[in-house]
Amino acid sequence: MDIKAIMKKYGIKADKRLGQHFLTDEDPIHAMLNAAGIHRKDCVLEIGPGLGVLTVKLCEKAGKVVAVEKGRNLIPVLKSTTRDFKNICIIEEDVLKLDLELLKEQYFNSDFKVVANLPYYITSPIVMKIVENRSMIKVAVVMVQKEVAHRLTALPGGKDYGILSIAVQLYADVDIVCEVGREAFIPPPKVDSAVVRILLRQEPRVMLEDEALFFKVVEAAFGERRKTIRNSLKGRLVFPGISLDKIDAALEQAGIDPTRRGETLSIKEFARLTAVLRH
Predict the structure, then answer these.
(1) CB–CB of 131/139 below 8 Å?
(2) Which residue of 107, 150, 164, 191 has the fewest CB atoms within a 10 Å radius of its CB?
(3) Is the peptide bond preceding residue 187 cis, with omega within 30 degrees of 0?
(4) Pair 21, 111 in one domain
């Protein structure tokens, strides 16, 4: 597909407000399709299809494709590039405002997969929406900023490990499929990209009695990354009955050295600490 020719034909200019960068290299597309394991029985949700480069490939392989595009100027282009397919539905909408349960009922007859080149400026909210709707999504294969990919896959102890890492890894297994240079896009973004595969889990990686409190503890621990876990919780953790004595006792009971930094704690350690703090 000649992206430059399509842009010229329809007078399309990338909208910086929507983080539009159009993929011209088909190698990452094939990598995404393979990682998602797309076959004829699959229902696929594509977010931010742009000019339809990935959309066409999805239509060739999947049973049903629903493409959600916020940019009104791109809808006529999408309809043109996919005109030969009967298994495509194009929706002009902000995916963050979409009720995915309703979308499933209206367009799919089963659970679905997500395959998308995500807009950079709303990557994290979309990824979290995918995780929150894990009951109906089998797998998501998405292209994101390389930096975000490293955060999604980060392990405890590294600079990339943080709240997003834990929030996603609690309910998913995440791996990097491939990296994509900025030269693969028109116009080139200021950063490189990467394709990640998110295999959703129906049950959390560790059982939690109180997920809301778990994330309060995680957020407090990462509130000031350079501080020890003790001092971070002391300054930022707020809930009825909390005190420094309770924090000290909980850290000791959970077997966590109070001088460690929050970024060194695993999901299991955060869960153990939360369980002790709760009682």
Answers:
(1) no
(2) 191
(3) yes
(4) yes
Distance of CA 165 to the CA centre of its chain: 10
Both tokens of 191, joined, read 């950063």
Q: For 196-227, write each residue's pLDDT tens digit.
A: 999 999 999 999 999 999 999 999 999 988 89
Which residues constitute the domain of residue 238? 211-278
pLDDT, tens digit, for every residue of 64-96?
A: 999 999 989 899 999 999 999 999 999 999 999
Of the candidates 208, 222, 202, 204, the one whose C-alpha atom is nearest the C-alpha of residue 272 is 208
Residues 190 and 243 reside in one and the same domain: no
- Same-domain status, 63 and 127: yes
Two tokens at 188? 């080139």
Is there a single domain that holds both residue 249 and residue 171? Answer: no
Cα 158 → chain centroid: 20
Whether 94 has a binding-site annotation, put simply, is: yes
Question: Phi and psi of 260, rounded to 5°?
Answer: -70, 155
23 is in an annotated binding site: yes
Is residue 206 assigned to a domain? no
Query: What type of residue sits at position 200?
Result: L
Q: Are 256 and 269 in contact (CB under 8 A)?
A: yes
Bridge partners, residue 22, by sequence: 186
Beta pairing, strands 43-47 & 64-69? parallel
**48 marked among binding-site residues:** yes
Dihedral over Cα of 167, 171, 177, 182: its sign: negative
Record the tokens describing residue 126, joined without a space. Answer: 């979309």
